[in-house]
Amino acid sequence: MADEDLEIDLDDLARRMDGAMNALKQEFASLRTGRASASMVEPVMVDAYGATTPINQVGTVNVPEPRMVTINVWDKSLVGKVEKAIRESGLGINPQTDGTIIRLPIPELNEERRRELTKVAAQYAEHARVAIRNVRRDGMDQLKKAKAAGMGEDDVKIWSDEIQELTDAYIGKVDAALEHKQDEIMQV
């Protein structure tokens, strides 16, 4: 077997770890921090035209003020359905309708709710760490196969160290993102 066949694809491992980071960022974006964000309504699905549709496909989502999200619904017949979807989404926001514009005032978070949200953020971060460790395990499995196919002990050690460095770097990114999100949530 040629030496090229025995190499581990670190770029593929890094790409998969990036995927875990992107998923974490999306989960963090959906967490309310007491500040308005268009991404907080992204997971809301509306029953429109006989199908469940993301809210951003039935209206324009804007953030005109730091504590207000507005949704300008394009089809007047969907205003009630959008309002219902927001109420049932679990965001804890009471929509106010004005014609085709739905306003979502973001209430202040109390201390207890902030602490709950930091725990949720920590759970999201732990899921990302697990995903990254799973990618690491896949890389180590590739390494075992390469060793069985004739890779030398020194090369195995070098690749093993590189995979571990990559894993440590991504775990560090998750920890930094979590710390930033928790600071953002706890900020009054």
TrEMBL record:
Main location: cytoplasm
A molecular function GO annotation: ribosomal large subunit binding
GO CC terms: cytosol
Domain Ribosome recycling factor: 24-186
Compartments it resides in: Cytoplasm
Matching Gene3D superfamilies: 3.30.1360.40, Ribosome-recycling factor (1.10.132.20)
Keywords: Cytoplasm, Protein biosynthesis
GO biological process, one term: cytoplasmic translational termination
Biological role: Responsible for the release of ribosomes from messenger RNA at the termination of protein biosynthesis. May increase the efficiency of translation by recycling ribosomes from one round of translation to another.
NCBIfam families the record matches: frr (TIGR00496)
Family: Belongs to the RRF family.
Record-given protein name: Ribosome-recycling factor
